Amino acid sequence: MSDKDTSNQTGKTFTLTNDQTGESWQLPVLDGTCGPSVIDVRKLYAQTGHFTFDPSFTSTGSCKSRITYIDGEEGILMHRGYDIAELASKSNFIEVAYLLLYGDLPSQSEYNEFEHNIKYHTMVHEQLINFFKGFRRDAHPMAIMCGVIGGLSAFYHDSLDIWDPRQREISAHRLIAKIPTIAAMTYKYSLGQPFVYPRNDMSYAENFLHMCFSVPAEEYKPNPILTKAMDRIFILHADHEQNASTSTVRLSGSSQANPFACIASGIASLWGPSHGGANQAVLEMLHEIGSKDRIPEFLEKAKDKNDPFRLMGFGHRVYKNYDPRASVLKESCHEVLEDLGITDDPLLEMAMELERIALEDEYFVERKLFPNVDFYSGIILKAMGFNTEMFTVLFALARTVGWTSQWKEMIEEPSLRIGRPRQLYTGPAKRPYVSINDRD
Ligand code: SDX
Predict the structure, then answer these.
(1) pLDDT over 70 (residue 365)
(2) 354 CA distance to ligand 1 centroid (A)?
(3) 142 C-alpha vs ligand 1 centroid, how far in Å?
(4) Is the CB of 304 under 6 A from ligand 1?
């Protein structure tokens, strides 16, 4: 974004005064459609010789965006103005992908054309199979995803010009279309089963489940319950404002790196257990707790500053209320397990008891720590047949739509500039070089 962009200015200002020199500066305030206004500090260093300091960006807006809005206090999540609960119950993932990419819900003909374009990009170059052969069968699927997605740019030289709108769109379609195929390939590779080619007569979610669970030995019969649950899980994970992985994608894209490399950087960031890796960590935590009577012991560990253990799937930088996605997933848990005839899933029982106790505990209440998107998702994914190491891959699959939409929005901003934060230097002052013979 250009430093000369003066849109959203309100005429309101904040006055900043240097108490040592008495100098003061008027900093413009920018208003958005909703949510907190921002103090524009783009000229602060030039005017004051000072940087701002906000290492984890708790109080820092990195960009303007029209895609997603989160109200953390109220537990609200909207995509292009549409509430997540409405999209999860009334829309489907392909339609939400169109909404995130292009800004409005599609007409029927726009939907049909978009779905067709995605369907006809689902196959991957046959050479890509060789990438997998270099990995051990027990490689973490996220390691494979980082490698294979990063390598996609080696196959699509015809859509790497980020300044050509048509090439940007083709790359976006290729990424959204191929990520399920590659994700399913990572799953099959871990099982030692043959890869399954995509089918164009199936919906996006149905096709993904088909590529994961069908085997050449018998006809695959899609389960409509699992298909609906998968599609809803994809919707709930599609985008989430400027989270760590999306910010990674934007910063990568600001150097004009190609979109495949940018999405690979997002996958790498999402893998961390503080971020998308939490869904795998929640299941591992529930297994570690083992039984309801051990919940208090683990809550004490979570509160102990000397213990690195944290309650995985709880807490959020932005939500200081119940994550609206967790509410939908909690409801889906009951529906899917019941539909699958799983009446008393011990993991779900444990998760619900853990949530009940935590939400009554002063430590969690005081810090406004609520279940987030990762707390219940793994229980459904496990019931659907996925192993825990695939959970973050499914998060990355869905978030590819958000990453691609945010990347596209950034590239389409007038005069893209490279992102380059500064620092507070606390290292040694200047000192002369000492040859090794003269050192102590
Ligand atoms: C995602 O940003 C996004 O939008 C991400 C995401 C998306 O869709 O892209 O929503 C997806 O990443 C969800 C979050 C998944 N991660 C987890 O579930 C891991 C467990 N949660 C925590 O690690 C933590 O809550 C974070 C990382 C999510 C948020 O960390 P913050 O904002 O830096 O919060 P903090 O560490 O400053 O915590 C504030 C206080 C601290 O205690 P005090 O120092 O004030 O005494 O709350 C405590 C923390 O110790 N705390 C927890 C806790 N989370 C915060 N204590 C125990 N268990 C936890 N889970």
Answers:
(1) yes
(2) 17
(3) 22
(4) no
For ligand 1, mutation pick of 369, 392, 395 (most atoms within 8 Å of CB): 369
DSSP class of residue 58 equals T
Among 71, 250, 314, 395, the mutation site with the greatest number of ligand 1 atoms within 8 A of its Cβ is 314
Residue 424: pLDDT above 60? yes
Residue 242 makes CB contacts below 8 A (sequence gap 6+) with 57, 61, 62, 63, 65, 250, 406
pLDDT of residue 3: 65
The arrangement of strands across the sheet holding 38-39 comes to 9-17, 24-30, 38-39
Mean per-residue pLDDT for 387-394? 97
Rounded to a whole number, what is the distance in angstroms from the first to the last CA of the chain?
Answer: 51
Instruction: Kindly list the distances between the CA atom of residue 93 and the CA atoms of 227, 228, 264, in Å, as whole numbers in the listed order.
Output: 11, 10, 21
Per-residue confidence at 222, pLDDT binned at 50, 70, 90?
Answer: confident
84: tokens are 């997540």
Q: How many residues does the chain have?
A: 440
The CB of 243 under 6 Å from ligand 1? The reply is yes
Tell me how far the alpha carbon of residue 278 lies from the centroid of ligand 1, in angstroms.
10
Q: How confident is the model at residue 244 (pLDDT cuts 50, 70, 90)?
A: very high
Any idea which residues carry the catalytic annotation? 316, 374
Rg (CA), the chain: 24
* CA 321 to ligand 1 center in whole angstroms: 13
Q: Residue whose CA is closest, atom 13 of ligand 1?
A: 275
Number of H-type helices and E-type strands within the chain: 18, 6
Three-state helix/strand/coil letters over 308-334: CCCCCCECCCCCCCCCHHHHHHHHHHH
CB of 367 shorter than 6 A to ligand 1: yes
Q: What's the rounded mean pLDDT across residues 314-318?
A: 95
What is the average per-residue pLDDT within 170-178? 98
pTM: 0.96
pLDDT at 2 over 70: no
Structure tokens given for 208: 């993904």
Give the pLDDT confidence of 190-210 residue by residue, as tens digits: 999 999 999 999 999 999 999
- Site to probe by mutation for ligand 1, drawn from 317, 318, 370 as the one with most ligand atoms within 8 Å of Cβ, is 317
